[in-house]
Amino acid sequence: MISRLFIKYSLLNVVGVKIIKFNATGYFHKMAAKEVQAQILSGTEIAKEIRQQLARDVLGMKTLLSEFRPGLAIVQVGDREDSNVYIRMKMKAAEEIGIKAEHVRLPRTTTEAELLLKLNKLNSDPSVHGIIVQMPLDSDSKIDSHLITDSVSPDKDVDGLNTINEGRVAVGDLSAFLPCTPNGCIELIKRCGLQVDGAEAVVLGRSKIVGTPASELLKWNNATVTVCHSRTKDLKEQCQRADVLVVGIGRPEFVKGDWIKPGAIVIDCGINAISDSTKKSGQRLVGDVAFDEAREVASYITPVPGGVGPMTVAMLMKNTVLSAQKSAQKLLDSKWNLRPLRLRLQNPVPSDIEIAHSQEPKDITQLANEIGLYPAEISQFGSKKAKISLSVINRLKHQRNGNYVVVAGITPTPLGEGKSTTTLGLVQALSIHKNKNTFACLRQPSQGPTFGIKGGAAGGGYSQVIPMEDFNLHLTGDIHAVTAAHNLVAAQLDARMFHEATQSDKALYDRLVPTIKGRRKFSNIQLRRLSRLGITSTDPNALTDEEKARFARLNIDSSNIVWTRVVDINDRYLRKITIGQSPTEKGLTRESSFAITVSSEIMAILALAKDLGDFKERLSKMVVAFDKFGKPVTADDLGVTGALMVLLKDAVEPTLMQSLEGSPVLVHAGPFANIAHGCSSILADKVALKLVGEKGFVVTEAGFGSDIGMEKFFNIKCRASGDIPSAVVLVATIRALKMHGGGPLVTPGTPLKDEYLNENLDLLQKGLPNLIKHINNGRQFGVPVVVAINKHMADTDAEIALVKRVAVENGAFDAVLCTHWAEGGAGAVKLAEAVIRASEEQPNFHYLYDLNLSLEEKMSKIARDMYGAEAVELAPNVRGRVEQYQAQGYGNLPICMAKTPLSLTGDPTIKGAPKGFTLKINDVTLSAGAGFIVPICGEITKMPGLPTRPSIYDIDLNTETGEIEGLF
To answer: Which residues are catalytic?
Structure first.
């Protein structure tokens, strides 16, 4: 906040003969004067001093935030010259102070609706801290000026005219914007040295802009106030009682000298033009007070002009700087005002969907406000979820990132070990119970597992994302957008092959570059293709026949197409299909297939893009096929990049949701954890890292165990984003460790065997090498590893103690028992405390391998260091393709291993932590847009199938209540 100005200066009275000086407290003292004349309160000089102080305040803000600058928008409808004069004064004052002032000129044809739309945009612009609507509105249309002033956000209403701000003044809340002219009057009165407490004040005039708010401010400064107006009886006698007389009645020289109490302070707010033949203009400006008469009686008086007018402008600037300081303070102090939701724990714990339905989520706009988002930065999808604009990253670009924590797991059972549940429990503990700004960043679940065997991915028990049915079903449509975009590429690919096979070079070229309304030109994407081909001419008619043929023909090899179609459903019968069987396709049939949408390279790109430009560049580089000469054919060659951007323009924004306890969750992207890297998006993480601030936490999840998800998180995602992780949370269960010790198979839908329901320390001891290997995997990246033991009901104290001891002895930073499934965030407080301590460690993060290594060397490094293999064995076809990729310039890409998550080896039946085996790689694919090479170990399908009894049997819609039932 700007402190009161205590100014020491002298001022020569330009009207009388006396000299006025301020002392250290800013009060006047008479040095020499004719006692019969009032001292002149020069608003011009005082306003100048205020502007100088404001300039120092702005400089102070820039010292802390180098590119931060207060922003003021002055909106004018029409072009009245008197308004232009006032606006120039405000613009000049703003420039002098260091405020970035924008004169928003709107024509006289502007309608009320158009003006309201413009104000709404300015209200939503975080770079604008103050808005002034210049009155009167010079419009051909009828515009309600009261509606307009009330449409300026109270937080940006530097005029102080919004009814909300006026109401605050009326009830004595002076913390918001004070109306400028009245506030300038108060400042002038205080400069006189009068003790306002108990003084008799009379305000002549009751206008919304001056009289009424001036009386309120005087009242809350403890004066005894009388408000008079044109219909007040005994008006002269009322004025004669005033120690302070504020006049704003709009009548030239209305108040005469004999109306004024001797020694009173007179503040003249009027400004009127009267005829004066001595002036070149034929007019002169006077106030509402007969100045020459009044100065013979009053002790202090404001001149017109040069009195209240300059103070009004100064107070406008002061309010703008105050608003900017509040915004700057938000950037400097990012502590949230998070309002938690109370859990109502039950024992036994109900089903996930029952728990989710028992908790009413906060309105998403409330949550957005609590975590520092501006209204313009969210796009609501109903009342419980919203898209977040990527502009947040730019707005907070000078904000230091928070702590970055990744949750991974040991090698899981087919039931999963609760990574998502642990992520949510940890975030609830950090945000609600440890009072840390904390985000969870999660992948959007596919409908495949939701309707298949695994169920939803919203967490579980009392550690969930809500509304969980929204989370698991459609959400904001991002996966459907990826489906549409992916299949558009496939459709264009087959269409291009058909047209090339059925047309001559000339016909093909003429259709690709048609003449429209007598004009022929290349599109932007076609110009990029010309550049790649080395064709310098950009005139379609100037190309040679050979150049036209090269441009028009992609010569796609139908036996070397890598782009298939996708659908977000487990549909095993689409694993191999035949396309082009219609007679219209002229015999151009071929075998193809469908994959599940989350395995699409577009989904991987969505998760790895750093900004819109990077997203577009990656999409353009996607290799969809190879031509007959073995060269890659890209999405840009097909001409679809721009269309993909249009389809995906909303999908690039992460979705804001919340946990059961009301902490924020960002949901974005959902790349397949086998074929791709299995992590939520870089963009979501970057938004979250800025919003939490330097002392906050962003907790994200990596798919599967540390050997797959965490390794890819570090080597692919962190390498692409440049964000440095603070800690790893490694989720382990007694159940999984017993399985790795030789316990019976764990099968979904089948009751657990006795070994998992009773204490068995020997079996557990034999399985601990798997945990030790995963701890070592995390430590190889130089990141502290905290083991989270996700408790199940059958786990015993002895078993838990054994896991804790072995984990710490083998390099874990800490090992903590977690009960968040049954207790929410309270059950993960010790885990949160361990994560906080681990994040305070000096970071020593490094990647596992150098990108300059050959592709085979990088594969070997991952296999040896992450899995425990002795060597990798490349099938002959794989070796040839790897050499091809190297020759085509893809050799410096990172590796994204596709391997079973159920074993450290490539064989899902092998448990524990085997060593010295050979990892066989029987296929390899290129994801040039995503930016990685995918070696495939064993049988990895991109299209899962539904089991005999999928989750479909349990899912239903209650037609009476409208609630979804049976989601896991």
So the answer is: 90, 134, 159
